[in-house]
Write a structure and sequence with these properties.
The complex is a heterodimer of chains A (289) and B (97). Helix content of chain A is 37%, strand content 17%. Chain A contains 11 helices and 10 strands. Chain A has an 8-stranded mixed beta sheet with strand order 2-1-3-4-8-7-10-9, sandwiched between helices. In chain A, helix 5 packs across helix 6 and helix 6 (114-123) crosses helix 7. The longest helix of chain A is centred in the first third of the chain and has 15 residues, at 35-49. The N and C termini of chain A lie far apart (69 Å). Chain B contains 2 helices and 5 strands. Chain B has helices at residues 33-37, 70-74; strands at 18-24, 43-49, 55-59, 80-85, 94-96. Chain B has one domain (18-96): Alpha-Beta Plaits, CATH 3.30.70.20. The A-B interface holds A 1, 4-6, 8-10, 12-17, 20, 25-27, 29-37, 39-41, 44, 188-189, 192, 225-227, 230-231 and B 20-22, 26-27, 29-33, 36-37, 54, 69-70, 72-78, 80-83, 85, 89, 91-94.
């Protein structure tokens, strides 16, 4: 290789590289884990959004996905378990100009933080929630989560889960989210586009990303490694835009319905409604500043 | 410096710009996403190991690389990226230590 070619190659740097803290690499995620792939999509999405990086905050809770906040070289907060949404609520209400993106896992957002999730969606708080769903509590050893599909095996369900699992798009939709989409880690281009739309959306926007967990979920259920799972997503995903979210349940080894399910326009956010109320009261002479 | 021009093929059309990948072999954990999902089949897993004992990818067919950066989007370890480069600079991979 000539020196000129080597110089040209040196100039090629990953688009993700500008957004990650290179001194923290290599990261803790297992070989074949899909969280890193979602981070690639996210970094490209914020680049495409053209959002001012000084006006962007990433909030995450605890768990494998919770580490994203630590690895991204942006204003980021690694909060306590399940309390990413309360933290983001305070952050958004006190800094209305800030773009707040929540990046967390299913265990953090939907299990311990489930109540915060439904109330943030109900209030239509202007935040973007990216939920990386790997079907179990991966960081603590593969225990059964509310998203583990029925009949799947987990550390705490060695003979298979007998409870019904959450259908996250339906949960978000029924609580009032204005943007709901689901993609898998295989659909990188579509996922990037969904993240761009979600970040630009005013109101509570929710993107669920299905990712492989080869060390725990896939290994216990004998579903192969991360690559086998990605190939499986490729073959078993059904893209159905505007599908009824009630029919987006995930069964163990069943088809995964992907797509953009909800995209509502002009729904007033919590901040807009609060400002409107304050204005009404000021007109009546009741409110003080 | 005079700008290099692409050699013409039999149709007298300039050759399309080709791609280039940069691989940080020490970051790789050998998941194989990049090799499996490369749309042109330009990558292959190398015979060699990195310090952690994983096989890392290499640009086995440089003429096939289009520089689409899909490998860079799939790589969960941020270890590979692709880019479109002028033809004269293409056709070889850099493996960073």
């Amino acid at each position: 290789m000539t020196q000129a070619t080597a110089d040209a190659c040196e100039q090629i740097t990953s688009k993700t590289e500008e957004f990650v803290r290179s001194d923290r690499m290599p990261h803790i995620w297992c070989p074949g884990c899909g969280i890193g792939t979602t981070v690639n999509c996210f970094t490209r999405a914020i680049e495409q959004c053209g959002v001012d990086l000084n006006k962007l905050a990433i909030v995450s809770g605890i768990g494998c996905t919770g580490r994203v906040a630590g690895y991204l070289n942006l204003d980021s907060f690694h909060t306590t378990h399940g309390r990413a949404i309360p933290f983001a609520t305070g952050l958004k209400l006190s800094n209305p100009d800030l773009k707040v993106v929540l990046y967390s896992g299913d265990g953090d957002l939907i299990a311990i933080g489930g109540n915060h999730f439904i109330h943030a969606a109900r209030r239509n708080l202007d935040i973007t929630v990216i939920c990386v769903n790997n079907f179990n509590y991966a960081m603590t050893g593969g225990q059964v989560a509310p998203t583990t599909p029925i009949d799947a095996i987990g550390t705490t369900a060695p003979y298979g889960v007998c409870e019904r699992s959450f259908n996250l798009p339906f949960l978000a939709d029924s609580c009032g989210a204005v943007y709901v989409a689901r993609w898998t880690a295989f659909h990188v281009r579509q996922l990037t586009k969904a993240m761009v739309e979600a970040v630009n959306k005013r109101g509570f926007s929710f993107v669920e990303v299905i990712t492989p967990c080869p060390t725990l979920y896939e290994r216990r259920n004998r579903l192969g490694d991360g690559l086998a799972r990605m190939e499986w997503y490729k073959e078993n995903s059904v893209i159905k835009h505007d599908a009824d979210t009630r029919e987006c349940d995930i069964d163990f080894q069943g088809k995964i319905v992907c797509g953009k399910f909800v995209d509502k326009e002009d729904v007033p956010s919590l901040l807009q409604k609060r400002n409107q109320k304050t204005e009404e009261l000021r007109v009546k002479g009741i409110a003080c500043d | 410096m005079e700008k290099a021009t692409a050699p013409s093929n039999h149709n007298n059309k300039p050759k399309k710009p080709r791609g280039q990948v940069s691989i940080s072999s020490e970051r790789c954990k050998g998941c194989g996403f990049c090799v499996a999902f490369c749309p042109t089949g330009a990558l292959e897993m190398s015979e060699g190991y990195n310090a952690k004992g994983y096989h890392y990818p290499e640009l086995a067919n440089p003429e096939k690389c289009s520089g689409c950066d899909l490998c860079g989007m799939y790589c969960p370890d941020f270890a590979i990226c692709g880019a479109r480069v002028p033809w004269s600079e293409a056709a070889s991979a850099v493996t960073k230590e």
